[in-house]
Amino acid sequence: MIGKLNHIAIAVPDLAKATEFYHDVLGARVSDPQDLPEHGVTTVFVELDNTKLELLYPLGEKSPIKKFLEKNTAGGIHHYCLEVEDIDAAISQARAHNIRLLGDGLPKIGAHGKPVIFIHPKDALGCLLEFEEV
Length: 134
Known about the structure:
Number of domains: 1
Number of helices: 3
Number of strands: 9
Helix content: 10-25%
CATH architecture: Roll
CATH class: Alpha Beta
Structural class: alpha+beta
CATH topology: 2,3-Dihydroxybiphenyl 1,2-Dioxygenase, domain 1
Radius of gyration: 15 Å
Distance between the termini: 12 Å
Largest sheet: 9 strands, mixed
Order of helices and strands: EHEEEEHEHEEE
Mean pLDDT: 97
Strand content: 35-45%
């Protein structure tokens, strides 16, 4: 059902400083910031040869990243994303095993313009897990 690792998301308290670190210090290719109001985040992608890092910064007062940073003031790993060929099949598989999906349980369009869904961390070995259809 699952494919390759798509990205690891890191919540950051200062997006400009984090972007500068990856671009200027480590020499990585980084995207321009992208606001995703539906998800309550601003993202920057750090392009690696074999995957991506997604830098997450809160967008709005109700951002889940704002809450995460209140508990983890220095930032940290927020979630990881695995690719799936069919998001509806992945959702059906999760539901068949009583796995909780976040939000309304329906896929949303993610930062790459593709459908995504999040699996509750308590049902994914303590880690927030995102599936992205490829």
